[in-house]
Amino acid sequence: MGKPLILINFKTYPEALGNNGILFARKLAAVRTKRYEVALSPSLLTLPFLSRQLSFPLFAQHADPFLPGAHTGSISLEELKGLGIRGTILNHSEKKVPFSTLKKTVLRCKKLGLIVVLCAATVSETKKLLLLKPDYLAYEPKGLISGNISVTKARPAIITAVVELSQKISPKTKVLCGAGVHSRRDVQRALELGCQGVLISHSIVREKNPQKVLQRLLL
Predict the structure, then answer these.
(1) DSSP-assigned letters across all residues of 89-114
(2) Is 27 helix (H, G, I), strand (E, B) or coil?
């Protein structure tokens, strides 16, 4: 993805579950922009439906490293690939994964050509995760997630430090920032600080008119 990425995580907010989630994704997919790459990460149960209905970048909210077989309840990377899913978010603060498991999952994603977005909540965690050479490192300090103050305003120096770490440890990894991002200025500031996009959720998903909010972000 050459353009800055706007990755919208639906989580399991009620506005974006089941049939509501399918309609919700269609509305967001109708928004057009030449400046950014917009991708959606809907609930896992709606991914198969959306992959057939939308020619739009879709990411899973989680995945497991296991080969197809006797792994009840696991999310298969091969199945995601077969559905046309572009990649997966891993290690979100709400879905932490042991480092050893992350390492296996990232390696298997690379073999299958799936894009990996690894989430980090601290600078020390960032250093460790960058050793895995992910496609994207999304930095989200936990205390600001789902809040109204963007990390780009509250902790800009940390964002700069994360970008510098990425350039040093894994130069090909692109940095996203998240937590509290809710305005066009927040997105622009993230880019000014050296990020190549944002990971965003409630400020779009929980809005009454998410399509309009997204349009404002992309102006």
Answers:
(1) EES-TTS---HHHHHHHHHHHHHHT-
(2) helix
Q: What is the DSSP string of 170-190?
A: -TTPEEEEESS--SHHHHHHH
Range scoring the smallest mean pLDDT among 26-40, 61-75, 141-155: 141-155
**Complete domains list, the chain, with CATH:** 5-218 (3.20.20.70)
Instruction: Indicate if 140 belongs to the active site.
Output: yes
Look up 202 and say whether it is catalytic: no
Tell me 123's DSSP state: H
Considering the candidates 78, 94, 125, 140, report the single residue annotated as catalytic. Answer: 140
What are the distances in angstroms from CA 210 to CA 2, 48, 57, 94?
25, 22, 18, 23
78 closest CA partner among 92, 57, 89, 64: 64
Round to whole Å and give the CA distance between 171 and 73: 35
Mean pLDDT computed over every residue of the chain:
90
Q: Write down the catalytic residue from 92, 125, 182, 202.
A: 92
DSSP letter string over 201-219? -HHHHTSSSHHHHHHHHH-
Give the integer Cα–Cα distance in Å for 87 and 85.
6
SS3 state at 38? strand
* DSSP tally for the chain: helices H, then strands E: 10, 8
pLDDT in tens, 4-18: 999 999 999 999 999
**pTM of the complete model beyond 0.90:** yes
